[in-house]
Design a protein that fits this description.
By secondary structure, this protein is an alpha/beta fold. The chain has two domains: 157 residues, Secreted effector protein pipB2 fold (2-Layer Sandwich), CATH 3.30.2450; 28 residues, no CATH class. The chain is built from three helices and seven strands, in the order E-E-E-E-H-E-E-H-E-H. Strands 1-7-6-5-4-3-2 form a seven-stranded mixed β-sheet. A hairpin with a 2-residue loop joins strand 3 and strand 4.
């Protein structure tokens, strides 16, 4: 049976979430390698932050529930993104799990669904009795990685996310390099800049 995944790396030799560009103009990537094969996916900053947090939560749960698991070894350092940075697809959904048999964490990424012509036609004509094919045609990637690799990915990703533009402590909006007018001050304060 043919794999339903565009990329199916079991296990990865390296996996990293990182960004390229200056704060405010950064592009976030998830990249996994398996020998000579490489998959580069484009992500949103919020997805990277949520993935990093979810990995740490799953690792914590595994440590509590599975006392028999060996401790997570320290990875020397997070790998770097490799060129060429040509993303295969933009990530729409992420799933995270654990494969007990292999003692590997599993990350599944699915592309943002491509709204094809058929779906647009159906949206325009809701009376049509045709059914739309499910999302099995959308690209997907499945990456198996050690707990140490995933911890390293998570810790590095959190550093990358934190290195962006700061958020305003009053309104939560991003503070641009040239400053920020905070609506919470009702015009009674000068624009904030950090």
């Amino acid at each position: 049976m043919e794999s339903q995944f565009t990329f199916d790396f079991n296990p990865v030799s390296a996996i990293v979430a990182d960004a390229v560009g200056r704060p405010g103009k950064r592009t976030f990537f998830l990249q996994a390698r398996h020998g000579a094969d490489m998959a580069t996916l484009i992500m949103e900053k919020e997805q990277v932050a949520a993935l990093a947090t979810s990995i740490l939560q799953l690792l914590e749960e595994l440590e509590k529930e599975r006392a028999d698991l060996p401790a997570v070894e320290e990875e020397p350092a997070a790998p770097s993104l490799r060129e060429p940075l040509e993303p295969a697809f933009r990530v729409g959904q992420l799933g995270l799990g654990y494969d007990e048999r292999q003692d590997l964490m599993v990350l599944i990424a699915q592309a943002v669904p491509d709204v094809g012509e058929e779906e647009q036609d159906l949206a325009a004509d809701p009376v049509s009795s045709e059914t739309v094919e499910d999302e099995d045609n959308d690209p997907k990637a499945r990456f198996y990685a050690t707990r140490a690799q995933m911890r390293s990915l998570s810790e590095h990703a959190l550093q990358v996310v934190a290195a962006g533009r700061p958020d305003c402590p009053l309104c939560g909006r991003v503070i641009e390099p040239e400053g920020h007018f905070c609506p919470r001050t009702n015009g009674h304060a000068f624009p904030l800049s950090l």
